[in-house]
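Reply to dn_fold:

You asked what the input looked like. This is it:
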Amino acid sequence: MGAVRPWHIIVLVVVLVLLFGAKRLPDASRALGRSLRILKAETRGLADDDVQAKADAVATRQPIEQQPVAPSATPTVDPIERVRDK
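and this is what came back:
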């Protein structure tokens, strides 16, 4: 019941050609392919960054959670001091 039969694919192709036209389908598929390549490259880059961070943590013998974090650019103000100033 859930199997895709050849006539299912034919009907899908006919509907797509009727909706988008024969000229737009190649452009749309090219754009989709480019987007998937970019997504794949970015996810591979994130995975490589994770591997590099783990290797750095092992090299410095620090757990990843305890690595120094750069201070934020915005200064933090104690809410009590803010109320006293007003």
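The chain has three helices and no strands.
Hope that clears it up.
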